[in-house]
Design a protein that fits this description.
With 195 residues, this protein is mostly helical. The chain is 57% helix and 2% strand. It has a two-stranded antiparallel sheet.
Length: 195
């Protein structure tokens, strides 16, 4: 990750945590992203998925759920918080690529299923079992032949959408702390890693 990428990531993180962008709220109807023709053209002309996500964040950030829960609202019970799903669905990318971001989001969302804050050996075992399942997500990205920099950069931006409150990011920090010192061996792609 370059210094510029780190700076952009830090800025996006700060904006997500404090809710610092207010443009575009007139285009949001009941927490939905409603794209104008101008929005569609901007997204279609973006050179990367990461650039599309940056555009969507700039114009539709107010729809992000900032309630006091870890999981937020998933009314359709597809494993993705509804507001994050709105951002993924608005991307002008092939459906199989959109599926990758959904799969990655579902994986991250399940980190909220367990409390890792105790720092126990069991916490580490459960965190490790969860982290190992991420291999399939990486293998899906490889299977789709996505550009590595754009795929990982875009995935990190979607992660930032999910971890957009202090409570959510703190929970994720406990998860990461539970994994500290563990080592992983990546599994081989099966060719059927995408959901």
């Amino acid at each position: 990750m370059t210094n510029m990428d780190k700076t952009v990531a830090a800025l996006v993180g700060c904006l997500l945590l404090v809710g610092g962008i207010s443009q575009g709220s007139a285009r949001n109807i009941e927490d939905k992203i409603v794209l104008s023709e101008q929005d569609r053209q901007a997204l279609e002309s973006a050179s990367t998925t990461k650039a599309q996500l940056a555009y969507l964040l700039q114009h539709f950030e107010p729809i992000l759920n900032r309630d006091d829960t870890l999981k937020g609202v998933d009314a359709d019970e597809n494993g993705i918080r509804d507001d994050v799903d709105e951002f993924i669905n608005a991307l002008m990318i092939p459906e199989n690529e959109r599926g990758f971001y959904r799969q990655s989001s579902r994986h991250l969302q399940t980190v909220f299923d367990y409390d890792y804050s105790g720092g126990t050996e069991i916490d580490t075992e459960i965190a490790y079992a969860h982290a190992v399942k991420y291999d399939v997500v990486i293998n899906c990205m490889i299977q789709l032949n996505l550009d590595w920099d754009d795929g990982t950069g875009s995935r990190r931006m979607v992660d930032a959408l999910i971890l957009n409150t202090k409570r959510r990011s703190q929970h994720y920090a406990y998860y990461n702390r539970a994994l500290d010192g563990t080592a992983f061996e990546l599994t081989e792609p099966t060719g059927d890693d995408c959901e």
